[in-house]
Structures are given as C-alpha cells and as structure tokens.
Amino acid sequence: MGVHELTHPLVRHKIGLMREADISTKKFRELAAELARLLAYEACGDFPLEVRTITGWDGNPVEIEQIKGKKVTVVPILRAGIGMLDGVLDMIPNAKVSVVGLARNEETLEAHTYLEKFVGKLDERLALILDPMLATGGSMEATISMLKRNGCRQIRVLALVAAPEGLSRVTAAHPDVDIYVAAIDRCLNGHGYILPGLGDAGDKIFGTK
Ligand SMILES: O=P(O)(O)OC[C@H]1O[C@H](OP(=O)(O)OP(=O)(O)O)[C@H](O)[C@@H]1O
Ligand SMILES: O=c1cc[nH]c(=O)[nH]1
Ligand SMILES: [Mg+2]
Prior knowledge:
Elements: E1 3-5, H1 9-18, H2 25-43, E2 49-55, E3 61-67, E4 72-78, H3 82-91, E5 96-97, E6 99-104, E7 111-117, E8 126-130, E9 133-134, H4 138-149, E10 154-162, H5 164-173, E11 178-184, E12 187-188, E13 194-195, H6 201-206
Parallel strand pairs: 1-11, 4-5, 4-6, 4-8, 8-10, 9-10, 10-11
Antiparallel strand pairs: 2-3, 6-7, 12-13
Helix pairs in contact: 1-2, 2-3
The chain binds 1-O-pyrophosphono-5-O-phosphono-alpha-D-ribofuranose, uracil (URA) and magnesium ion (MG).
Uracil binds near residues 135, 194, 197 and 201.
C-alpha cells in the first residue's frame, strides 16, 4: 500500500514534455494517453496468472499464462480523467468503465459531485481511478469514498501529477489505497494549482484553454 512514483526514464521524459507552456492539445492528449498506458502497466504488476494449454502454431499443445479472472472497472473522473481512459483500455481491454463527474469550486477548492455511474458487482472488482491531477486531493478522496459506499474494496489510483499536500490527505483518509503517479511535484500555489505542474489539465485535454 502507499504511493508509487514511477522512476522509468520513459515516464520521466514524457512528463517533462507535458510541462511545456505552449504544448498543443494534440501533443498533450498523446502524452497523457502514453503515460496512462505506462501507469496501467505498473499498477497491474501483481495481477495473478494461471496456466492454460492451447494449440500452438505447429499443432502441438503449448502452456500459456493468462490473467486469472480479474474483474476490473476503470473510473475516469470527468472531465480530465477521460484523457487517460483510452490509454488504460489499450492495456486492459476487457475492463468495464464507471464514470464519476466532479468539478472543483475554484474559490473554495471543494469538489462538487455531479455524476455517479458505476458498473455492477463493485464488491468483486478492482477499481482503477483515473485523473491526471491530484492537487488538494479533494476530488480523489471523494471518489474513493463513493466507490467504497457502493461496495468496492480494492481501489488503485492512476495520476499523472500529484502534490504532496493532496497525497497526504488521500493516504490519511484511505490508507488501503495504492496511488501510482508519474511525478510528485513541489507544492500547490495559492489557487490550488500544482507547481511546477501541468496547468489546467481538463482545459488542455478538451481544448478549452
Ligand atoms: O485534487 P483537487 O484539488 O480536487 O483537484 C484536482 C481536480 O481538479 C481538476 O478537475 P476540475 O474540477 O478542474 O474539472 P475538469 O476536469 O472538468 O476540468 C482535475 O482534473 C482534478 O479532478
Ligand atoms: O494543477 C492543477 C490543479 C487542479 N486541476 C488542474 O487541472 N491542475
Ligand atoms: Mg479543470
């Protein structure tokens, strides 16, 4: 359990490219999707395997390994989490998708929930929550609480950038949840934005900046 900051050179390189002030919407989306794939790869590293026998290319039996009955729901937090969804589904194509909508009040920094749409059998599923930005941690804390209220017991978070303040808040409230993050940044500014951060990830992904 805990916080896992990815140290792989590809991750460090790609997150650096995302920090460029005048990055295009296209490039930002591409990098968000690429990093989402790498975060998913890391977050699924302990999935159990089982051996199955299939017929190989020459007609002989071959033992192969496959992931053992893992039921996954991917949970993008609207809007910005959508920017990571396709990348994660590239890696886990059979996952079901739940959606939560939260908007942060830019004055109070409180997260307001406007949508909750969960798939069934949450008690049997591992949930992978997607949000590029974990700032004060209010949106993530609320999303984890929603999942738990609906019966989910195995929860992991995938984020591109997190602030130490937000990580402390989420790990204190939900110590049972693992957080996979491409970069832990320095701090929050007076408006709740992460420094050095990426700016407004939702605006950059949706082209509304
Ligand atoms: O950790 P927090 O302080 O809660 O802030 C992080 C949240 O803020 C942003 O969403 P925003 O509310 O701006 O919505 P958007 O994705 O629709 O732009 C971001 O995508 C996170 O969801
Ligand atoms: O730095 C931040 C904080 C919240 N939301 C963002 O998009 N960026
Ligand atoms: Mg936003």
